[in-house]
Design brief:
Strand 4 and strand 5 form a beta hairpin. It is elongated and about 100 Å long. It contains two helices and six strands. The strands form two sheets. It has a three-stranded antiparallel beta sheet. Strands 2-6-3 form a three-stranded mixed beta sheet, with no helix packed on it. It has helices at 6-70, 74-93, and strands at 96-98, 111-118, 129-138, 141-143, 146-149, 151-159. It folds into two domains: 10-94; 99-160, Nucleotide Exchange Factor Grpe, Chain A, domain 2.
Length: 160
């Protein structure tokens, strides 16, 4: 029978304890990575579905604008308003936000500018001009930090 000294056994206990701690840390890190990947995958699929649904919401909003301008048909308008509100509530429930546009400073990460007009800012030093969104042509949406669709806007140069 092999004899082990107390020092050898203590050393082996320390080595095994350290190995166990490393394995536990690896397990915790693996669980964290799996949870992060699941969340990213969930957001990916949410984004895909939202991209497919946005044209329907856009068309309902266009219909609402058309009814408001060309019709006195109140029940139809109220029905479309309810559909739009319901769609917006569903998007909010998924964590989807509408990108702020009119009146905000132009941000190329969020907005796609179709045109830029000068509103009296010409000739000023570059540091004194700011690009401001003056009209939203198509709303943009984001899910967390991911842009689902950029907002299509018109921009004007203003004095800061």
């Amino acid at each position: 029978m092999a004899k082990f000294s107390i020092k050898q056994l203590e050393k082996q206990v320390v080595e095994l304890t350290e190995a166990l701690q490393r394995e536990r840390a690896d397990s915790v890190n693996l669980r964290r990575r799996v949870d992060e990947e699941r969340a990213q995958l969930g957001n990916f699929y949410k984004s895909m579905v939202v991209r497919d649904v946005l044209p329907i919401i856009d068309n309902c909003e266009r219909l609402l604008d058309h009814i408001s301008k060309h019709s006195e048909e109140r029940p139809l308008k109220e029905g479309v308003e309810k559909i739009v509100k319901q769609a917006q509530k569903v998007l909010a429930g998924l964590g989807v936000e509408r990108i702020k546009t009119v009146g905000s400073e132009f941000d190329p990460r969020l907005h796609e500018a179709i045109s830029v007009e000068d509103a009296g800012g010409a000739g000023l030093p570059a540091g004194r001009q700011v690009e401001v969104v003056c009209e939203e042509l198509q709303p943009g949406y984001k899910l967390g930090d991911e842009i689902i669709r950029h907002a299509t806007v018109r921009v004007k140069m203003e004095k800061k």
